[in-house]
Fold this protein.
Amino acid sequence: MPKKVATAPNSAKDYAAKISHEVSRLANRRGQNAPRPFGDPASGTVLIVEPPAAETVRTVDALRRSLAAVKLDRAYVTWAPLSLEEVLALEPTVLVAIGPGAARSVDSLNYPLAKATFSAAPEGFWFSWTEGTAGLKLPALDPALDDADAKRRFWRAFLSLRALTREGGPNVG
């Protein structure tokens, strides 16, 4: 009788499924009023956004369009406040805080491996958050939806994300 050969599980798919399950569980704990995260939690690129003051649909649409413009449709987007559990589950290689509230949310984790704080980082410039995670702080998105100057400021900083689609990735100082 021939031996049954065990096949090795597809580790990348298993890992992505594990991350998706864990992040979904954490999102469900946030409650019904919080905006839902979107994107691929296994992408390695995580954006934390200040919750919009009012029109969630408009903010989400603007963010989706902006990510598509820089070819980062798969990036995972979640909302401040961020939990340490989320960071540990997502294991980002890139962490982006959109707005000062999102930056404070990341800093409040007191992540033991953090080399720098998001609040002290200049907007639109890459920095080394941890040994393996590049950080980027961006201006708040909500004001950019209605104010031309805020929109230019946001977009100039947001374009720093194009470095992720180029070979070599972001230039982290």
User: Anything to note?
Assistant: The chain has a mean pLDDT of 85. The chain has five helices and five strands. The CA atoms of residues 45 and 75 lie 5 Å apart. Residues 30-162 form a domain with the Uracil-DNA Glycosylase, subunit E fold (CATH 3.40.470.10).
